[in-house]
Amino acid sequence: MVDAHGYSFHCEHVLPVVPALRKAMNEIITDPKPRSERWISSSYHKSEWDKPESKMASAEYFVHNLMSSVFFNDAVKTIPPDAIIIEIGPHFLLQTLLKRTVGPKALYFGLMKRNEENNIQFFMDTLGK
Prior knowledge:
Helix content is 36%, strand content 9%. It is an alpha+beta fold.
């Protein structure tokens, strides 16, 4: 269970900011690229992974990710036991859960860590691994 402090991160409550978010994301992601087959999406159900909108790392994909339910359990089941897992999130929150689910042969890296004094150095150290 993840303590969200009473706020859902992926839900309809973010709908009021979607137009501004979509506009800002379109300014940042001007040339969307196809997502790698290794990029496992938890914002689309596995049955939707072949849809064109789920295949591109586009502004629309990331907006959808923020406002949609998370299919975490389904996504985790597709991770190979010897994978290199990079958690792109602010707290390296899922490491323990991933280790229990995927297993000890996988390698786990987080890009940020809560209460880390120097997250830039933490990020650079992680990249170096």
